[in-house]
Structure formats: C-alpha cells, structure tokens
Amino acid sequence: MAIVKPFKGIRPPRDLVEQVESRPYDVLNSEEARQEAGDNEKSLYHIIKPEIDFPEGTSEYDPRVYEKAAENFQKFQDKGWLVQDTREHYYIYAQTMNQKAQYGLVVCAHTDDYQKGNIKKHELTRRDKEEDRMKHVRVNNANIEPVFFAYPDNATLDALIKRYAQTKPEYDFIAPIDGFRHQFWIIDNDEDTKTITAEFAKMPSLYIADGHHRSAAAALVGAEKQKQNPNHRGDEEYNFFMAVCFQASQLTILDYNRVVKDLNGMSSEEFLAALQVNFTVADKGTEIYKPQQLHEFSLYLDGHWYSLTAKEGTYDNSDPIGVLDVDISSRLILDEILNIGDLRSSKRIDFVGGLRGLGELKRRVDSGEMRMALALYPVTMQQIMDIADSGKIMPPKATWFEPKLRSGLVIHKLA
Prior knowledge:
Blueprint: E1 4-5, E2 10-11, H1 17-20, H2 30-37, H3 45-48, H4 63-78, E3 83-84, E4 90-97, E5 100-110, H5 111-116, E6 119-120, H6 127-140, E7 142-143, E8 147-151, H7 155-165, E9 171-174, E10 181-187, H8 190-201, E11 206-210, H9 212-228, E12 240-247, E13 253-254, E14 256-260, H10 268-275, E15 279-285, E16 296-301, E17 304-310, H11 325-335, E18 349-353, H12 358-366, E19 372-375, H13 381-390, E20 400-401, E21 412-413
Parallel strand pairs: 6-11, 8-12
Antiparallel strand pairs: 1-5, 2-3, 4-5, 4-10, 5-12, 7-21, 8-11, 9-10, 13-20, 14-18, 14-19, 15-17, 16-17, 16-19
C-alpha cells in the first residue's frame, strides 16, 4: 500500500504567485537563475538557487549559500510572500502543454515507502547530488520543491480531479519561460480528502518519474530525524515528503537524444558500414527525419538523415531493459562502434531533450561542434513502470518528462 497524507502547505498569496514561482533548481544554471530572477526579490530562486545573492562565481555548494537559502525562506514567510495554510489539504496541480492537460495530486508520501521500495525508482542516484539536496532540506527543514510521481490509472481519483477541474482554480497562469499553462486547486472537502488517502492505500506502488535525488534526500533526512528523536512514532511530519502524483496514462515522455563529437577514428563511410551489421540503414535525404516507431533511430551525419532499424535478434522483447531503444543504441552504436562505454562520464557525448526538437541536433552538427546526432523513439510510462517493478535500473539519460513542475506553488515543512 502507498501511504499518503494531506499537509499544511506554505504557498504564495494568489496575487503574488507569478512573482514567486520558478523553474526547478536543476534545469538551469546559476547565471540563468540570476538573469531570470533579475530584480525580483520575491523570486523563489533566492531560496532554491541562493548563490544568485552572492558575487558571480560563488559555488552553489558554498556553506554560506545553504545558510542564505534558510535566511531567505524565513524572510519570504516574514514578509507574507509565503503563507502557511491553517489546515491540512491535498492539492491538485494541472499543466497544459500543446492543448494536452495532465492533472496531478499534491500529497505527502511516506519516507518508509521509499526505503521499503514501495516508491519505485528507475534511475541510479549520485551520492554528491543526494548530499546537496539533503543539506538544502536540512537547513530549511522543508521540502521546498516537490518530486514527480506516477501512479496506475484510478477511475475514482480521475472523477474527483475532473470535478475540481470544473471549478475556479486558486492559481491560473502561463509561465513566461516554458509558455505552458499551470493551474492549482485546493481540496477543502473532508470526504474528498478521505477518498484520496483511501485510494492511494489500495495502490501497491508509486513510481518516481522525475526527482530521484530529491526523493533519496528526503528519505535520508527523514531517517536522520528518526534516529535523533528518542520518542519517534512514525507519524511526525519529517516522515513525509512532498510529491505531485500523476496518472501514468496522462504523462508525456519526450525523446532524449544524443550528439557525439567524433566517429572513433572512422570515416563516415566506415561508420555507416559498421552500422549495417546490426541495423537496416536507409538514407532519408536532407529533410529532418523523426523515428516513427520502437527500434527505429534517426541518424544525422554529413547533412543527411538516415533511418536505422534494429535487426531481429539485436534486442530481447522479454527483457524490460533489453527491449529499450536507449539500451540498443548504447550497446550497438555508442559502445560497440564508437567506444563510448560510460555515458555518465564521457566527454565525447552530450544529450538533448526532445522539447528542443531535432532541429537542435542538426544545428549542433552543422556548426561543427558535433560530428553526428542520434534521435531515439521515446520510452513509454509502461516501460518505465515495468523496469521499476522488475527492480532493474534504466540506462542513463533515457527519459525526458515535459512539462517540468513549477516550483513555489506549495512547500512542505518538516515540523
């Protein structure tokens, strides 16, 4: 069962939300955050990217930066830019991209579910990134930003959400950077609150879509606080962390593509010949060509687009990892032909999220920065859930969820 609870969210007043809200901390660098915040002292970047309050070049990992985050978080509350709700609520958060809306329930999930594996992951985490988020949670004693979960489709919750979606939202705005619509409702009916808790309790698992490091950090901080409390019961607020949970079928996963700096000493002709061992290669001309189905890839090389179709026997449909295009391309192209074995550390490869489009791949190759580009067919949420259920881990840089959650719509205090 999945344990969730409502919480007393800390939120901006309706007339300030567009000044406070921001992109997530990990989708932009310090300079971009500095530029986006500008002279807006209410921007959440002062809490999630507080290095912008220091001279340029200050490390985001400087101890003073974490202290500044806590100082600014308190300042926002003192000035009324963030105000805590007087009672516990669940919330609904909707995002609309290209006329497609997805509705998430904002809940507090239990850290024990993460530790026990009831909250399932599909990516490895790095200890240095975990420690960074742990420091941020510790110093603020709060989850400033939510993690992004998926849950199996549920008709009862779907009907409840649709009912609220017909009412006026608390927040409703178009974000200036992504251009997507973001809406937010407060669930203030006790029976609806009970229904949400009960329906999640029937679910064997929740799935991390995005936010593996934030999830791990929240669970580790919760475990620390348990050890520090001799009277620990298990229902204290520090046992919970904030998540936005979406029905799996609503989520949009975009392609996550690759650009490579060299052909491992081969000519273009030699590289294309090497590909033909495991792929059917077809020249598609100079117009951008997007993969049409699973196991088909698009290659951009020397001004031409090629389709690469993996041959039978090069993948295992019974293996949740082996069937993935990201695994096929990693094994048979990047590793076997180009000798790029570790995608996490190699300096010869870079990754481009699908929202930028295949035109970005073409641009980076045509500029001479990269030698070739490889576009992949996107994975599905069902594939991600199958992998998580099997206890396996996806290859790196496999998923790109869009739209990203906006930060600053609601915050969860651990006390």
